[in-house]
Design goal:
Helix content: 10-25%
Shape: globular
Radius of gyration: 24 Å
Strand content: 5-15%
Structural class: alpha/beta
Order of helices and strands: EHEHEHEHEHEH
CATH architecture of the largest domain: 3-Layer(aba) Sandwich
Number of domains: 2
CATH topology of the largest domain: Rossmann fold
CATH class of the largest domain: Alpha Beta
Strand order of the largest sheet: 3-4-5-6
Oligomer: single chain
Length: about 250
């Protein structure tokens, strides 16, 4: 049994690549008259399989489990001009690989609500230089960010706008609570106008306690977030905002 035969060889080995193409390079399979593309194909330690089998046969499900058979059947043709990269031969989910890249290219969005914001801004100065750890310059739009850093006291009036900012951020996204007031309410915990911890209105991934925490503390918390992204890569469930958003905001 050869690696190209069904069930033969290592599932992730080069021998399981279909023949053809320039220097045996990976390429996409394109269905004539359809915009659906079968590659890159990413599956769990199995033979190559189509991401959407119905795309090859007019909506009828087919048992297509090997790209070489698909190409030989004439149902789809090889298009070497399309980019597919190495994802075709990685025996795992695409998000598992992409999160490795996300961990070292975080794009923070600042939400400075009180005095902790000074230390947050200080982390980006030349003395601390948070950029050297793979956290790029702070973004001005939630649609360009994947990490929300909340620093300072969260009032009931500010809770609503902050939740809307969180909802505008694309998935996957993470939240960092900086300072005692953000983590648990701090000195103003018993105030009628204060939310006792940001985790009451949105999910939090990393807590950075302190009053205020030093810039090094925030950088350490962001590095822990990087490790969290690497450890959980490919397994990010959808998370709804908290159930206790104050009424009337």
């Amino acid at each position: 049994m050869t690696p190209d035969e069904r069930g033969g060889g290592d599932r992730g080995d080069r021998g399981s690549r279909p023949a053809g193409g320039p220097s045996g390079a990976s390429s996409a399979l394109v269905v004539p008259g359809s915009t659906a593309v079968a590659a890159p194909i990413v599956v769990r330690n199995q033979l190559w399989s189509a991401a959407d089998p119905t795309a090859y046969d007019g909506g009828r499900a087919t048992d297509i489990t090997h790209l070489a058979e698909v190409e030989a059947s004439g149902i789809a043709s090889r298009d070497d001009a399309r980019w597919s990269g190495v994802l075709e031969v990685i025996p795992t989910k695409a998000d598992y690989v992409l999160d490795l890249l996300r961990a070292n290219s975080l794009w923070p969005l600042l939400s400075g609500l009180a005095c902790c914001a000074f230390e947050m801004m200080s982390s980006a100065t030349s003395k601390n230089d948070i950029d050297r750890f793979g956290m790029f310059p702070f973004r001005a739009s939630p649609r360009q960010a994947d990490v929300l850093i909340v620093a300072g006291t969260l009032t009931t009036k500010m809770a609503g706008p902050l939740v809307r900012i969180w909802e505008q951020m694309p998935e996957p996204k993470w939240c960092v609570a900086m300072g005692d007031c953000t983590c648990s309410g701090g000195r103003y915990k018993r105030s009628y106008a204060t939310v006792e911890g940001i985790d009451r209105v949105m999910p939090v991934d990393v807590y950075v306690p302190g009053c205020p925490p030093r810039p090094e503390g925030l950088i350490y918390g962001m590095m822990k977030l990087q490790q969290l992204v690497k450890d959980r890569r490919g397994h990010w469930p959808e998370r709804a905002v908290g159930p206790t958003v104050p009424e009337g905001v």
